[in-house]
TrEMBL record:
SUPFAM superfamilies: GAF domain-like (SSF55781), PYP-like sensor domain (PAS domain) (SSF55785). The keyword Coiled coil applies. Residues 305-343 form a coiled coil. This is GAF domain-containing protein. It comes from Micromonospora lupini str. Lupac 08. Gene3D superfamilies: 3.30.450.40, PAS domain. Keywords: Coiled coil.
Length: 427
């Protein structure tokens, strides 16, 4: 009997030593470790990483895990502890999703973990060791890489900006651990107003109301972020002074928190804002802010690419308009040249007629019929005498005289008879 008792005592001491070794091993580890005892899974001891994970304000022992972390109710983890305690069979989970904390401080996390039964000298299960490694960042990074690559491909193939921004907003809404509503506003060229860019999950009346809001201190989260060129985190719209002018609008839309980040160009110019809305007051985690920064930078790339394409299209349109104007000018110049050539030809022909008429006039000073009718002749009475600077003169009818005056340079009325000049003036 004494020997058996001694063996049990030795086994207990060995078990306690092993437990101490585990505590020492996980004391400074980033892995989560907790030792639970009894059927209610009282937290006997835990390493710092465990309390950092669940929230250091809850760093205490001697209470059941369900009391320490009431948010576990309904998530299945306490039921798994019960199962391991009852059967003595260990359990291993991979990429298990868990929501830690409640209210504004709640966050989504993922873990690889093991529930390992603790036994006394008789082999009876007395508790459970919890060993886990948080994989949240890896999980988010994997999902982020896939979505981010898809967006970069959209930008590279020059998809419309509205399509890129809408896809980005939906992507973040899917990646975020809690319900989030994303909005992207685009800056006017003057940088003084913000226009709707994308907000697939916000109510339409809300999007219309904020389309065109000014940038400035205290103009909601987005107007202020655009003005400051830095993130503006409003965790509770109901009490924040930045939202005094928009509080009723936000309440109608069911919005309680808004974190906004400016979208900046490479030269620091304002391109727009990127906002994440929540239905309940919310404090952002580091992962939330990192996600916002990544997608704000991606939005900047898409918007700058869009501006480049717009500038290119505008330049091409201006070049096309200039070419059309040039072509029009060339056509007009050709037409004018043709008309000038026609006038020159007409003038030359009329000059020839005048010379011929002058020669004929030498024999008969005042002919009976018009001398300017050309080869076909003109039977109208010769009423007016005209001459040019070369001294050639001829008599013609009203119509042919007027044609000569309009088309032949330096032609003037040379009739000395009152009837000829009066006939032209008073015709």
């Amino acid at each position: 009997m004494t020997a058996i008792s001694g063996q049990r005592s030795t086994a207990v001491r060995v078990g306690e030593a092993a437990e101490e070794d585990l505590r020492a091993l996980f004391g400074q580890s980033i892995a989560v470790f907790a030792s639970l005892v009894g059927p209610t899974h009282v937290v006997e001891t835990a390493n710092p990483a465990f309390f950092v994970t669940i929230g250091e304000e809850r760093a205490r022992t001697g209470v059941p895990v369900a009391e320490l972390m009431p948010e576990l109710a309904g998530q299945g983890f306490v039921a798994l502890l019960d199962e391991v305690y009852r059967t003595g069979e260990p359990y291993t989970g991979r990429d298990a999703r868990i929501v830690l904390g409640t209210g504004p401080h709640a966050r989504e996390a993922f873990f690889d973990f093991t529930y390992e039964p603790r036994r006394d000298a008789d082999g009876t299960v007395t508790g459970i060791r919890v060993i886990g490694v948080e994989t949240t960042q890896v999980k988010h990074a994997q999902r982020l890489m896939v979505e981010h690559r898809a967006m970069l491909e959209q930008i590279a193939r020059q998809a419309p900006l509205a399509e890129v921004l809408d896809g980005m907003a939906r992507c973040i809404e899917n990646l975020a651990p809690d319900q989030v509503l994303v909005s992207v506003l685009l800056a006017d060229p003057d940088g003084e107003h913000l226009r709707h860019g994308a907000a697939p999950s916000l109510p339409e009346f809300y999007n219309r109301a904020i389309d065109g809001i000014a940038t400035g201190e205290g103009v909601g989260s987005c107007g202020t972020a655009a003005h400051r060129r830095e993130p503006v985190i409003v965790t509770d719209i109901a009490t924040d002074p930045f939202w005094d002018d928009f509080r009723d609008l936000a309440e109608r839309a069911g919005l309680a928190a808004c974190w906004s980040m400016p979208i900046l160009a490479r030269d620091g110019g304002l391109l727009g804002t990127f906002a994440m809305y929540h239905r309940t007051p919310r404090v952002p985690q580091d992962t939330d802010l990192a996600l916002a920064r990544v997608f704000a930078d991606t939005a900047a790339l898409a918007i700058e690419r869009h501006h480049v394409e717009q500038a290119k299209t505008a330049a091409e349109a201006r070049a096309k308009a200039a070419n059309e104007e040039l072509a029009k000018a060339v056509r007009a110049e050709r037409q004018l040249r043709a008309e000038a050539e026609q006038r020159a030809s007409t003038a030359a022909e009329l000059a020839d007629r005048m010379r011929a008429a002058a020669a004929a006039q030498a024999a008969r000073p005042h002919p009976e019929h018009c001398q300017l009718g050309g080869a076909q002749g003109c039977t109208a009475p010769a009423k007016i005498k005209i001459a040019d600077s070369w001294g050639d003169a001829a008599w013609g009818c009203d119509a042919h005289v007027e044609e000569a005056i309009l088309n032949v340079r330096s032609v003037f009325i040379a009739s000395e008879e009152l009837g000829g000049l009066a006939a032209y003036v008073n015709r």
